[in-house]
Design brief:
The complex is a heterodimer of chains A (328) and B (326). Chain A contains 11 helices and 12 strands. In chain B, strand 1 and strand 2 form a beta hairpin. The termini of chain B are close together. Chain B has 326 residues and is an all-alpha fold. Chain B has a two-stranded antiparallel sheet. Chain B has a domain of 196 residues: MetI-like (MetI-like fold). The longest helix of chain B has 38 residues. The chains are: A alpha/beta (328), B mainly alpha (326). The interface between A and B is medium-sized, with 29 and 23 residues.
Chain lengths: 328, 326
């Protein structure tokens, strides 16, 4: 296999607070290959966004990467000097944020913002950058781009603004796009368009995509692989079909059980009892054990490490030494 | 846009009308003007003649209409103490006040914005904390005290700068300026700092607070995620957004600068409108007081209007909503 575009190994992110150090990310590892879409799911506070921000080097103090390594196409980027990391942001890693309404500077024309970004990273003249900006707007599906390029952000609808944001994220042909809940703030009808746009761009340009969301529907539709995060750790990771159809980790099972189906069965949706622990009160052993129906003594003492199981990888004691056939 | 400007202009005229009523009523309620003009041993018959010649025996509404019509043409009557047209007196002194006010405002804006931006970007440095501490002093010390302290230090003790007056002035048509002579410039320094210090600290604190606020916004985070240079983010994206509220405050403060110049002009014996006004109060020279009131209100109203229009120039969002509403 060729080298992955993004490789995260044993990442730890800590936030210094008055009540001591909080560990937001606790040993996360995953890879994303060229052209692959990795979906990252989990409840709010599971560490999805923080993972994305650490990859692009935008963790704000008091947060810091406390351990582990991040490699972008073989280059270690978690310890680069700020100026070198800045050159990578926008050029080799593009980022899309959740709320398109607040992502664009309201005082600048969208075209100026795109041209500025292009000219920061590529050695193009003003007019060449402008032509490229128009092409980009056309590519992300904005009608009459040569006219809209001189519009201000407030003159665009939410969905159109997210398209502009995507154009900004891809304007220097990055190898990796981190999309942090790109559809959460949008209408359902627009969500599908944005998702298929991201998918198409990834396919056409061979861009790797890290898609952070809590929407399992979006993941199922878009991703090649999916990572389920819980309390700062990856509970389960694997090909999207396997994880959705046959989740192994009890938490992943709970998540998949909570997806309503159109089949119209009169079953109640499964609920996971309780809520995710606060960062200051992560339980000993497996952090999911207080909410887990299958927890046994070992889960309350020893933390499970991720172990491969078929194409999937799961961090759960249930699978430590049980042969695959006996798993329900 | 045009409709918006017109609507604001009509509102401004309304405000000026209200101020005119107040200015006019000063004549009615602040003593009998005739008594101010004549001496104690003037006979009743002579008083009646003076009264008639000034039109003070006409019905009040007639007097008001006449006063307002005159004021609209910048005729504010004759000063009781100088026996000269008030308009001429004000015109003669206006350049001094405006020069002082503009220099004070420029000083306040330049240093206020620089210090504000610095203390927002380098929040934890010693210098930034020093700025914060100094700004507290600037905001809490009264103007006259700062003026007197400056005079004591730079005029009395060190002897570097003159303690009063405007220095040599050059005439440019009806305008007199102290900006072209060395003594005029030297004389301007302390009054301008005294007058501008409060605004400077105000602008500095405002810029700092706004800048910190703007730096937390999503579009700044997104700008960082796009790999823009720190310089472009701070001075292109953040500063422009910071300046919107600063324009309002600085603009509105320009009116107060002119109004507050009364104190500074008194401390430095600066020959401007403020000093004229203080002398007028001491001598119950109502025409000057009324005219000064009208002038200052006119300046205030004009500035408000200009700030409103400037707003729409800076912020494209307002431009279109204003356009749509019109």
């Amino acid at each position: 296999m060729t080298e992955p575009v993004l490789s995260v190994r044993d990442l730890h992110v800590e936030f210094a607070s008055r009540r001591g150090t909080l560990r937001a990310i606790d040993g996360v590892s995953f890879d994303i290959a060229k052209g692959e879409v990795l979906g990252v799911v989990g409840e709010s506070g599971a560490g999805k966004s923080v993972t994305g921000l650490s990859v692009i080097g935008l963790i704000d103090p008091p947060g810091r990467i406390a351990g582990g390594e991040i490699h972008l196409a073989g280059l270690r980027i978690d310890n680069l000097p700020p100026e070198e990391m800045r050159r990578i942001r926008g050029k080799r890693i593009g980022m899309i944020f959740q709320d398109p309404l607040t992502s664009l500077n309201p005082l600048y024309k969208v075209g100026d913002q795109i041209v500025e970004t292009i000219r920061t990273h590529l050695n193009l003249s003003e007019s060449a950058a402008r032509r490229r900006a128009i092409d980009l707007l056309a590519e992300v599906g904005i009608p009459a781009p040569e006219k809209r390029i001189d519009g201000y952000p407030h003159e665009f609808s939410g969905g159109m603004r997210q398209r502009v944001v995507i154009a900004l994220a891809i304007c220097a042909e990055p190898e990796l796009i981190i999309a942090d809940e790109p559809t959460t703030a949008l209408d359902v009808s627009v969500q599908a368009q944005i998702i298929s746009l991201i998918k198409r761009l990834g396919r056409d340009h061979g861009t790797a995509v890290m898609l952070v969301t809590h929407d399992m529907g979006v993941i199922a539709e878009t991703s090649d692989r999916v990572a389920v995060m819980y309390a700062g750790r990856v509970a389960e990771i694997g090909p999207v079909q396997d994880v959705v159809k046959n989740p192994l980790h009890p938490y992943a099972k709970g998540l998949m059980g909570a997806i309503p189906t159109l089949a119209g069965e009169d079953k109640r949706l499964v609920q996971i009892p309780g809520s995710m622990p606060r960062l200051s009160a992560i339980p000993r052993g497996c952090s999911f054990n207080p909410r887990c129906a299958f927890a046994f003594d070992r889960c309350r003492v020893e933390r499970p490490e991720p172990l491969p199981r078929g194409a999937q990888s799961v961090a759960c004691h249930l699978y430590d030494d049980v042969p695959a056939e006996s798993v329900a | 846009m045009l409709a918006f400007t017109l609507r604001r202009a009509v509102q401004a005229i309304g405000v000026m009308f209200a101020v005119g009523i107040i200015a006019f009523s000063m004549f009615r309620f602040a003593g009998d003007p005739v008594n101010q003009i004549v001496s104690i041993d003037t006979s009743a018959a002579e008083r009646a003649i003076v009264r008639k010649s000034l039109g003070l025996d006409d019905p009040v509404p007639v007097q008001f209409v006449r006063y307002f019509a005159d004021a609209a043409q910048f005729k504010f009557g004759v000063s009781y103490q100088f026996r000269q047209p008030v308009a001429a007196l004000l015109m003669e002194r206006m350049p001094a006040t405006l020069e002082l006010a503009i220099c004070a405002t420029v000083f306040a804006m330049v240093f206020g914005i620089l210090m504000g931006v610095y203390s927002a970007l380098k929040r934890d440095t010693v210098l930034a904390k020093l700025f914060q501490a100094v700004s507290l002093i600037g905001i809490s010390l009264p103007t006259f005290l700062i003026g007197i302290l400056l005079i004591y230090l730079f005029a009395v003790t060190l002897g570097w700068l003159p303690s009063f007056g405007r220095g040599e002035v050059v005439k440019l048509g009806w305008w007199t300026t102290g900006l072209l002579t060395v003594s005029g410039l030297k004389a301007l320094i302390m009054p301008a700092i005294t007058l501008g210090l409060f605004q400077m600290t105000l602008i500095m604190r405002l810029v700092r607070a706004e800048m910190l606020e703007v730096l937390r916004t999503d579009y700044i985070r997104f700008a960082r995620a796009r790999g823009l240079t720190t310089r472009a983010i701070h001075f292109g994206h953040a500063l422009k957004n910071t300046l919107i509220p600063v324009i309002t405050v600085a603009g509105l403060q320009f009116g107060s600068v002119i109004a507050f110049s009364i104190i500074t002009e008194t401390v430095f014996q600066w020959p401007g409108m403020g000093l004229l006004f203080v002398q007028a109060v001491q001598n119950v020279d109502i025409p000057i007081m009324a005219a000064y009131l009208l002038m200052v209100s006119l300046i205030f109203v004009t500035i408000n209007l200009v700030v409103d229009i400037l707003y729409t120039v800076v912020d494209p969002r307002l431009r279109s909503t204003v356009g749509r509403a019109a």
